[in-house]
Amino acid sequence: MADTTDTASDANSGKNTGGSGRNSGKGSPATSGERAGKTGPRGSRASSRSLAAGGAGTTDASGDRAAALPGGTTVVSRRRLLGTAGAAGAGALVVGAGAGAAGAAAVRGRPEPLTSLGSASAPFHGAHQAGIVQPAQAHGHLAAFDLAPGTDRRAAAALLRRWSAIAADMMAGRQAQDDTSGVALDAGPSSLTVTFGFGRSFFDRTGLADKRPAALEPLPAFTGDALDARRSEGDLWVQIGADDALVAFHALRLLQKKAGDTARLRWQMNGFNRTPGATAHPMTGRNLMGQIDGTNNPKPSDADFADRVFVPEDHKGADAWMAGGSYAVVRRIRMLLDTWDHLSLERQEKVIGRRQSDGAPLSGGTETTPVDLDKVDRDGALAIAGDAHIRVASPATNRGAAMLRRAFSYHDGFRDDGAPDAGLLFIAWQADPMKGFVPVQRKLDRGDGLSRFLRHEASGLYAVPGGCEKGEYVGQRLLED
């Protein structure tokens, strides 16, 4: 799905993933032979410390002291630990059952962050909700809730007030009020974003049908749909993203707990993207089919970006509360990976219309070269096939229709036939889904070569209100005006 995911603003883009700290102490350490030859009280104390740690202790070639712990775990010096972090990453520092203890002992003197990944944050308050224009994070959760029978407008407002408070605290790296779990206590905000939306049924349940936007009409049926109603729609929708899995999980867990008796979980899906810093330089990500995905995504620097993605700030009418908001189309799209993998690389590239290696269009150039839909090859055939995905999805063939795609891959194990239950949690943002997602999907439904390898298994459409100011909560203009 080369042009259906927001990986142009990939999780690797715009993120500070600074390297681990290093001990820059000067001077030449003593060799192991020199240390072995020293005696006296100082040497005795070193031996005592080593024995107290549970082993004889060793000195490596660099002269750094290491003590052995029970079970074979080695406590390395802080200088050696941080040097290793710079070379191999934090995940390869210590191996074994005593890894946590060893790491803590090694940096107890003066802890330094291994990277700045955890400190990155997005603002909760503002004209727009977070989680729309920010780069898609490494970990994501999508969830829908249904209001409990008898829940009225006032109870829904209280729920959004609680949820907004939790999101504001966690996105700023603060411990949420009344949170005693400690799950994310030692983590920073890790680029956490929490986004809230309303499904069509929300307005009927809360007596607000007169304020339901016209753009929230049900999506039309598509021939390629095989939708599971139990994993579709819902009164309330929540999108959570973070670059740390525990932070993302903890946010979801707190929201679920704070829903209390007001709302119950309808469905929930988990997704992932490439971890920031996994590539040597920022680049567009790849989907589970191996294709560079999101090259033609609208970018915030585009002159018409806001017009395509956000409801105008001067929007009037019964749904004026949607000013500054957006509409999210959510689709769970399973990829038929076993079938796809049987295609030759050449055939896969023709289906997409781009080279797998670098994402360049088959019409020539580099990844960012504009696609030439009119170019023909030496045999007179179209360089970009008539049913190639990038041709059928192109705004040029859809009267300019476009949307901001911001997605997560998913893998939910394996099906009974052994095929992977994996694909894309597709999220499309637009000012009006009837002018964005619907016309493009209709075109794809009729003539996209890639559709033969996809199954749309869940769907939802949500009105995502604009952001809120400090002291307010998301949806307040709808629920209190």
- Structural class, by secondary structure, is alpha+beta
Low-confidence residue ranges: 4-107
> Can you tell me the overall shape?
globular
Helix content: 10-25%
3D structure, described in words:
The protein has 13 helices and twelve strands. The protein has 481 residues and is α+β, with helices and mostly antiparallel strands. Strands 4, 5, 6, 7, 8, 9, 10, 11 and 12 form a nine-stranded antiparallel sheet that branches. Strands 1-2-3 form a three-stranded antiparallel sheet. Helix 5 (153-171) runs antiparallel to helix 7. Residues 4-107 have low confidence and may be disordered.
Chart the SSEs and their pairings:
Layout: H1 32-37, H2 41-52, E1 58-59, E2 65-68, E3 74-75, H3 78-88, H4 99-107, E4 139-147, H5 153-171, E5 193-199, H6 200-205, E6 236-242, H7 245-259, E7 263-272, H8 305-309, E8 326-335, H9 337-341, H10 345-352, H11 389-392, E9 404-405, E10 408-414, E11 420-430, H12 437-447, E12 454-464, H13 476-480
Antiparallel strand pairs: 1-2, 2-3, 4-6, 4-7, 5-6, 5-12, 8-11, 8-12, 9-11, 10-11
